[in-house]
User: Fold this.
Amino acid sequence: MNLSVEPTFSDLSLIAVPRATVGNSVRSPEEFHALLAREQFCSDRNEHEFSLLAFHERTGAVEAEHLVQVLTRRVRQIDEIGWLDPRRIGVLLPYTSSSGAKTLAEDICRMMAGSPPKYTIYTYPGRGLPAEGGRPPGVPNAMRSSASRAEGSSAAEAGPKETSVRCSEWPDGLFADRIPVWKRAIDIVGALVGLVCLSPLLLLTAIVIKTVSPGPAFLKQKRPGRHGKMFTIWKFRTMRVDADVTAHENHLNNLITGDRPLTKLDAKRDPRIFPFGHIIRRCYIDELPQLINVLRGEMSLVGPRPCMPYEVQEYKLWQMRRFDAVPGMTGLWQVSGKNKTTYKEMIRLDITYARRSSFLLDVRILLKTVPSILGEVIDALPHRQVSGNLPERH
Assistant:
C-alpha cells in the first residue's frame, strides 16, 4: 500500500507540538502512544476491535485548533484525541470498527466546512474495509487501513480510496518493532555453536531415519513466520512418507475449539510414526535442524512455535498478534507448563512474549528449556503418566 502521507514515529522526542493552540483536550505524543498500547492490550485480552483515525493537518495551527474543536464536539467520552506526530492528529476509538470510524471521519469532514482534511483509518485487529485484490494466501489479515482524500468542498466529492495493509505496514514504531540487534546476535552465535556441537547427533539421527524408513531424512514444510511471511522449516522426518495429515487436522481443530489441555497424537501411539520416531520426537531431536532456520533469520532461538498454515485459518483476529514475534525453537509457553495449558492459553503466552520480549526474558527462557524437556522425558517414562504437549506439527 502507498499512502501519500506516512511520517514515521522513530523519534518522538524531537516532536514540537503546538499544544498552546489546542488546549488541554489533546494528548501529547507520549501520552497518546501509551493509550494506543493500552488499548491494544485490552483488545487482545477482551477480543474486541478498535480504530485509530488519523487526520493529516497540513496548513497550520489555526486549522489544527479548528479540527480539535470539531473533534471535541463530535467524539464520545471514551474516545481520546492526541498527536501522532507534528502533522497528524489522531482519534482513538475503542470498540469501533473501520466502518464506524469512516462514518465519524465523514461527519468531521462535513463539519469542517470548506477545508475538509485528509484522513487515514487504522483498525486493530478488525477486518477493515474491503480489500483490493483479496487476501494473499498464507498471510494473516489481522490489520487493515483505509485512506481517504477530502480536498474539495466536501468529502463526498473526492470519494474514498480503500486499500488494505498487513500489520507490518502500520506506521513504524506504532505496533511493529524491528528485531533487536542483541536477539539476532544471540541467534547467530547460538545456532552456529549448536550446529557444530550437535553435528554427531544430527548425523546419527539421519542415519537411523534412513535405515528404518524409506525416504528423505529431513522434512521441509511451509510455515507462516513473523507478520505471516511464509518460510520453509527444517525437521527430521519421524513419519512415513505417505502419512495422512487429515487425522492431525481434526485433532488440532478439536484442541482449538474444545478448550482442553493440549495433547499429542503420540500419546495415542500414532501409527504413522516409524520405529525410533517416538524417541526422536519425545527428546525433541526432530526440532534440531531448525537451527538452520535460526541461522538464516527465519526463526529465533526463542519465540512462538511456528504453526501450520491450515491452523491459521482457525485463528480469531486477536490471535494474529502471535505473528508479531519471530517464531522460535523454544518459548515462554514451553517453559510455563505447556502440557497443562489449553490452546487459548498457549496463544496468550505467545502474545505476552511478543509484547514483553527482552534480553533477560530470552536468557531465562533458554535456561529453563533443558530442565523443562528433561521433566517431560521423565513424565513420559513407562512408570509415569503420559504427558501431553504441543499438537503434532508435521
Summary: The two ends are 34 Å apart (CA to CA). Residues 1-23, 127-170, 384-394 have pLDDT under 50 and may be disordered. The chain has two domains: 12-169, 181-379. Residues 181-379 form one domain.
